[in-house]
Write a structure and sequence with these properties.
173 residues, mainly alpha, two-stranded parallel ribbon, 5 helices, elongated
């Protein structure tokens, strides 16, 4: 694992990886909620010292890019994957998007619910986004959301209602 402090550290580590043909996996947001495997790759952990990729020097055929608009994501990812050399892609995401993996287990939902109830900043917006996502997904036939049991939907609606009521009590409009 590499925890670079600056662009020079990134360059030096990429040069070593290039020299030995080692694959590289960049991580920039803490734990891998998608349970991404490393498959022998050198992991670059940018969470400790580098929280923003402003630029990456173009030595050694390396590129750096930042995706800020979801509408350009597909084109920028295609460009990144078409590059013949190492590419670091930073993706700016909605801070209110709930951090849940595609297949959620009940204990994960329970822990998230506890965190939201205990005062997570913007908890109302996060809970509403979760319900919105579930409803958006349920409109697609191929989505697994249509199989969500009615009880889970009712529990989510109850949670959103309680969070909304609690927030109104804490911050009356």
């Amino acid at each position: 694992m590499v925890t670079p402090r600056d662009a020079a550290d990134v360059e030096a580590a990429l040069e070593v990886c290039r020299r030995f043909g080692a694959p590289v996996l960049a991580r920039g947001c803490g734990p891998s909620l998608t349970r991404q495997t490393v498959n022998g790759a050198v992991v670059f952990d940018f969470t400790r010292h580098m929280d923003r990729i402003a630029e990456l020097p173009m030595r050694h055929s390396a590129r750096g890019m930042c995706i800020t608009d979801p509408r350009s994501c597909a084109d920028q990812m295609y460009e990144a994957l078409s590059w013949d050399g190492p590419v670091i892609v930073e993706c700016l995401v909605d801070q209110h998007e709930p951090p849940l993996p595609a297949k959620v287990k009940s204990h994960q939902v329970q822990k998230l619910t506890e965190a939201l109830v205990q005062g997570t900043p913007n908890r109302n917006r996060i809970a509403l986004q979760m319900v919105k996502d579930m409803l958006d997904e349920s409109s697609f036939a191929a989505s697994p959301a249509h199989a969500v049991p009615r009880r889970v939907g009712q529990a989510a609606a109850t949670l959103v209602g309680r969070l909304r009521d609690r927030a109104r009590g804490e911050h009356p409009e």
